C-alpha cells in the first residue's frame, strides 16, 4: 500500500463516527433488523444504511457520505438492492492496511 493510501485510511479513521462504523460492522448481526434472506445469501454481513444511521444518530446524508468515502478507499464494500444500499467491511483491505501500517512503523521505528 502506498503512503498516500495509508494516509487516506488513517484520515478516514481519525473521525470517531467513521471509526465506530467500521467497528460496528465487525458485528453486523447487532446492527441490522430483519435482513432479507436474499441479502443474507448474496451479501453476507451487509448492513442497511438506515440501520447504521440509526445507530450513529446522525443525518442519513452524513452517514451516506461517510460510508461512500470509506468505500472509495477500500475499507467497505457495498451492494444495492432495490432502493436500499447495504455495506460491509472489506476484510482483505483492512488486513492489508494493518499489515502495511505495522511494517511501515517497524521500518521507521516510530
Descriptive notes:
With 110 residues, the protein is of the alpha+beta class. The protein has a single domain (3-101), classed as Arc Repressor Mutant, subunit A, CATH 1.10.10. The protein has six helices and three strands, in the order H-H-H-E-H-H-E-E-H. It has helices spanning 3-13, 16-24, 37-42, 49-56, 60-72, 91-108, and strands at 47-48, 76-81, 84-89. It has a three-stranded antiparallel beta sheet. Strand 2 (76-81) and strand 3 form a beta hairpin. The longest helix has 18 residues, at 91-108. It starts with a helix and ends with a helix. This is Metalloregulator ArsR/SmtB family transcription factor.
DSSP helical segment count:
6
The count of β-strands is 3
- How does the major sheet shape up? 3 strands, antiparallel
What is the mean pLDDT? 90
Structural class, from helix and strand content? alpha+beta
- CATH fold-level name: Arc Repressor Mutant, subunit A
Order of helices and strands: HHHEHHEEH
* Overall tally of structural domains: 1
CATH class: Mainly Alpha
- CATH H-level homologous superfamily name: Winged helix-like DNA-binding domain superfamily/Winged helix DNA-binding domain
Low-confidence stretches: none
Give the distance, in angstroms, between the N- and C-terminal Cα atoms: 18 Å
- For the biggest β-sheet, the strand order reads 1-3-2
Helix content: 55-70%
Amino acid at each position: 500500500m502506498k503512503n498516500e493510501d495509508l494516509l487516506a485510511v488513517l484520515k478516514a479513521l481519525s473521525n470517531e463516527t467513521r471509526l465506530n462504523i467500521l467497528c460496528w460492522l465487525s458485528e453486523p448481526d447487532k446492527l441490522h433488523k430483519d435482513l432479507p434472506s436474499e441479502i443474507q445469501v448474496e451479501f453476507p454481513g451487509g448492513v442497511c444504511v438506515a440501520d447504521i444511521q440509526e445507530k450513529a444518530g446522525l443525518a442519513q446524508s452524513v452517514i451516506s457520505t461517510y460510508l461512500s468515502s470509506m468505500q472509495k478507499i477500500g475499507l467497505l464494500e457495498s451492494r444495492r438492492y432495490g432502493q436500499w444500499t447495504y455495506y460491509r467491511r472489506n476484510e482483505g483491505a483492512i488486513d492489508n492496511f494493518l499489515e502495511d501500517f505495522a511494517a511501515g512503523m517497524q521500518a521507521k521505528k516510530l
